[in-house]
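Quarterly update from the structural biology core.
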Amino acid sequence: MAPPERLRIALLTYRGNPRSGGQGVYVRYLSKALIDLGHQVEVMSGQPYPELEPGVDLWPLPSLDLYRADDPFRVPRRSEFRDAIDVLEFGSMCTAAFPEPLTFSLRAARALRRRDDIDVVHDNQSLGYGLLRIRQPLVATVHHPCSIDARIERAHADSAKRRASLRRWYSFTKMQSRVAPRIRELIAVSEAGRDDVVRELGADRSRVSIVHNGVDTDLFRPLGRPRIAGRLITTASADVPLKGLVFLVEAVAKLRTEREVTLVVIGKTSPRGPVRAAIERFGLEDVVRFETNVDWARLIELYSEAEVAVVPSLYEGFSLPAAEAMASEVPLVATTGGALPEVAGTDGESALLVEPRDAGALATAIGRLLDDEGLRNRIGRAGRARVLDRFTWKAAAERTVEVYRRAMPC
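Predicted structure, tokenized:
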């Protein structure tokens, strides 16, 4: 029997925070675009729950919420434990592991056993063992293999104890490398991402489709306001070496020797982490400002104030912040880490590209843009044109539905 034209989709995300990382953004906009194509979508999520558009139903799968922003690594009351999955979640946290991908997948499989009206299940990067119990057709998106994060963090660890702790925290990546090859259809968000999924997770390349992420170009747009001279902007959803923020701080320190420059970081940093240490070492406490819990209106305002956006990451599977800055017509400086050249385009046309881990090259590229208004305007306009041409959520949804239909029985 042929699949129905109007699909009933369960879109799974083990956490959906719309302001920390890309998972919440992905499920919000993809689900809305799927609805606009005429499909029915329910988003299954653990805490923090995503912000969803009208017409998209939230199917909450509450966890113990052990990593909530105001009380991370909390100890739940005995009355909060409901079943064996909760016990597993807390016990894993107590051994310094990160249990959410596994425990969410187990809850999702249990919930889906009671549903006969779901045509296809789409997992957003949990890749947990519970997915193997799901009887509905299954698709999974891998934004990038977390084993890459683990390797980079271990390489930057300053002690054997820290390296051991990271090995335990990232132990879920072994599970993901066992589950991913057993899923019939996988989605990677870039060419580079597909190569990584094949290499890191052992997936069959013929089963990995490329579906680029989109950008809300009505939201992320130039506001036509005067920009603040010397203002830089970057996004660091997590204080981890992967984001390369230490190298950007060093670049800002170099730039400060010859000009006035300020940096706004969308995100937060650890008080005793390497980024904060670098800021203090270079005396940039009054130069670098962190903005946290930023809503959409404030984010657009911050982009409209910046003369240059910077993505200094060592690796990105796609980089929504790069695409959002380009859509806002903020000229972009980015590294060549991972899929960033795929998103940013040709060096000197729609962005300026430099090698990762090179603070001097970052400073030089940023300085070029700050010194040349004509270059800034040209790069900014070309960046938005590239996003409008290549990275829309409608195109992402259409391509995703094609993958769904391949996963479904004929």
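The first strand starts at residue 8 and ends at 13.
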